[in-house]
């Protein structure tokens, strides 16, 4: 599901993103500058609006600036490919943005006295980081880990829809979305660990806890 969604979404956005990417490159804007700007925008949407209960505005701002993740990648490709630092910066800023989003949701639910929703948000925060860590660690060991039903795009989509429905229809929509996301995130961690285990077994890689 994750791959189908990402491929179709990226294909649909290509015609919109590429002209913007070309214009920014001609203006001397670097992909790294776009990465940092996008992260700052997500922080404003999450902490400045979402954490204060303005869920629709927060979700819309986060969504718009999260799209820079596609824009900076396109710019890097057009300018000859991503540098190692660019890839490192992009991944690091993704973690900052994700932490801000789920931290803001957790803060908002805490102020509302929704303990169940708060617990779900904290699980999503931890599980989201683990999903990314498992992939990064596997790739650092020379293995692949491009599997899972809840990658970054799906996680942001689920929590964004939950926030919109909570403000437009009923507050319970957000905790429901978070518990759904917590479940699929933990399932994704299991998927990735199983995938890496199979590769390690086939390659006869020694196990360890270090």
Automatic annotation (TrEMBL):
A CDP-1,2-diacyl-sn-glycerol binds at residues 32-35, 73, 77, 83. Its cofactor is Mg(2+). Its main location: membrane. Keywords: Cell membrane, Lipid biosynthesis, Lipid metabolism, Magnesium, Membrane, Metal-binding, Phospholipid biosynthesis, Phospholipid metabolism, Transferase, Transmembrane, Transmembrane helix. InterPro entries: CDP-OH_P_trans, CDP-OH_PTrfase_TM_dom, CDP_ALCOHOL_P_TRANSF_CS, PIP_synthase_PgsA1. Homodimer. Catalyzes the conjugation of the 1'-hydroxyl group of D-myo-inositol-3-phosphate (also named L-myo-inositol-1-phosphate) with a lipid tail of cytidine diphosphate diacylglycerol (CDP-DAG), forming phosphatidylinositol phosphate (PIP) and CMP. PIP is a precursor of phosphatidylinositol (PI) which is an essential lipid required for cell wall formation. It is a multi-pass membrane protein. This is Phosphatidylinositol phosphate synthase. Mg(2+) 1 binds at residues 69, 72, 90. The keyword Protein transport does not apply. Belongs to the CDP-alcohol phosphatidyltransferase class-I family. It is found in: Cell membrane. It catalyses: 1,2-di-(9Z-octadecenoyl)-sn-glycero-3-cytidine-5'-diphosphate + 1D-myo-inositol 3-phosphate = 1,2-di-(9Z-octadecenoyl)-sn-glycero-3-phospho-(1D-myo-inositol-3-phosphate) + CMP + H(+); a CDP-1,2-diacyl-sn-glycerol + 1D-myo-inositol 3-phosphate = a 1,2-diacyl-sn-glycero-3-phospho-(1D-myo-inositol-3-phosphate) + CMP + H(+). PROSITE patterns: CDP_ALCOHOL_P_TRANSF (PS00379). Its EC number is 2.7.8.-.
């Amino acid at each position: 599901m994750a791959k189908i969604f990402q491929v179709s979404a990226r294909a649909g956005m290509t015609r919109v993103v590429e002209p913007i990417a070309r214009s920014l490159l001609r203006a001397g804007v670097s992909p790294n500058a776009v990465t940092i700007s996008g992260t700052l925008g997500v922080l404003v949407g999450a902490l400045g609006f979402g954490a204060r209960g303005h869920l629709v505005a927060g979700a819309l701002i986060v969504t718009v600036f999260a799209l820079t993740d596609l824009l900076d990648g396109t710019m890097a490709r057009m300018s000859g490919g991503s540098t190692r630092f660019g890839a490192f910066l992009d991944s690091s800023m993704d973690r900052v943005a994700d932490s801000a989003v789920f931290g803001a949701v957790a803060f908002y639910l805490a102020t509302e006295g929704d303990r169940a929703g708060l617990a779900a948000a904290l699980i999503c925060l931890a599980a989201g980081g683990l999903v990314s860590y498992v992939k990064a660690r596997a790739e650092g060991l020379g293995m692949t880990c491009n599997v899972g039903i809840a990658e970054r795009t799906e996680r942001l989509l689920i929590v964004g829809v939950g926030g919109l429905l909570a403000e437009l229809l009923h507050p319970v929509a957000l905790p429901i979305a978070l518990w759904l996301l917590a479940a699929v995130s933990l399932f994704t961690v299991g998927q990735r660990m199983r995938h890496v285990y199979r590769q390690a077994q086939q390659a006869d890689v020694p196990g360890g806890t270090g």
